[in-house]
Amino acid sequence: MCYPGSLDAEKVAGKIVICVADDDPIAFRGLKRRQVVQAKSVGVILIEKEEAVLPSVTGIFPYVQVGDIAGSQILNYINSTKKPTATILPTVEVKRHRPAPVVAYFSSRGPAQRTENIFKPDKMAPGVAILAAMLPKIDEAVGDKPSEFSMRYGTSMSCPHVSGAAAFVKSVRHRWTSPMIKSALMTTPTAYDNTRKLLTNGSSYIANPHEAGSGGLNPMKAQNPGLVFETTTQDYLRFLRHNGNSEKDIRSMSNTV
Ligand SMILES: *[C@@H]1O[C@H](CO)[C@@H](O)[C@H](O)[C@H]1NC(C)=O
Ligand SMILES: *[C@@H]1O[C@H](CO)[C@@H](O)[C@H](O)[C@H]1NC(C)=O
């Protein structure tokens, strides 16, 4: 499983190493990869428990993830020969992947924890394998210059998409307030994917509103939603009061005296 300290540097040096994922928070993959890199291996194959693997943060180190079916085939192959060999080929671009978008399996599900009266999640935005520029990280470099690009996952990736969409709407609708822009972004998402079927949830079931929110972000349509809802600070304060927050707490949160 490539736990820290488990690799024999002498055996691993110059080899492609196979690690099997156990309980696998995404961050753990990076950790496994680092173990293997430090042990001077030349590549790593990570076998995931599930077949639905997502490409992970790769840096420039030869690295590939496979599901449990391919994984057991690889393990059987290794067992079948004295000198197993492997080649990790460069990543290829897959254009017009279908279906897309899909709710990522790790995406937070609603309802909101404190009240079901507020619909959560708000909407979907791209957050899987987002390739972007980043500060070069020394530990991701192996015998070469650190990469200035990386792939990342999660809300931290989808948030900038939504922020960009909000800025785009604001550039056309100068007078709209932030809540009005949020309203426009939330009343215009699409319920369909690029196969013209209803959005799905990662295991091919139709995504419910607690998975997809109001649907897939649609910045073009958000310019002309037909109607926008304003939400004032007062509305938020009333909401907090209604949900059992004390006046003292609300004052400290809202900065009002
Ligand atoms: C490989 O072979 C050994 C010995 O025959 C066996 O114990 C082991 O389960 C095999 N592993 C796989 C992944 O097939
Ligand atoms: C997708 O929805 C089905 C039916 O509601 C559910 O059983 C399944 O766990 C969901 N998959 C994911 C990845 O959330």
Write the layout of secondary structure elements.
Layout: H1 9-12, E1 16-20, H2 26-38, E2 43-47, E3 63-66, H3 68-80, E4 130-133, E5 149-152, H4 155-172, H5 178-187, H6 209-212, H7 219-222, H8 233-242, H9 247-254
Parallel strand pairs: 1-2, 2-3
Antiparallel strand pairs: 4-5
Helix pairs in contact: 4-5
Bound molecules: 2-acetamido-2-deoxy-beta-D-glucopyranose (2 copies).
The hetero compounds bound to this protein are:
2-acetamido-2-deoxy-beta-D-glucopyranose
The low-pLDDT segments are: none
**CATH structural class of the largest domain:** Alpha Beta
Helical fraction: 25-40%
Number of domains: 2
The rounded distance between the terminal residues' Cα atoms is 56 Å
Run of helices and strands: HEHEEHEEHHHHHH
Number of strands: 5
Could you tell me the mean pLDDT? 86
Strand content: 5-15%
Number of helical segments? Answer: 9
Placed side by side, the strands forming the largest sheet appear as 1-2-3
Shape: elongated
Organism: Ficus carica
Domain Peptidase S8/S53: 99-192
Keywords: Hydrolase, Protease, Serine protease, Signal
Subcellular location: Secreted
Question: What does it look like?
Answer:
It is built from nine helices and five strands, in the order H-E-H-E-E-H-E-E-H-H-H-H-H-H. The chain is an alpha/beta fold and 257 residues long. It folds into two domains: 9-80, no CATH class; 102-226, 3-Layer(aba) Sandwich (Rossmann fold), CATH 3.40.50.200. The mean pLDDT is 86. It binds 2-acetamido-2-deoxy-beta-D-glucopyranose (NAG) (2 copies). One 2-acetamido-2-deoxy-beta-D-glucopyranose (NAG) is lined by residues 105, 201-203, 205.
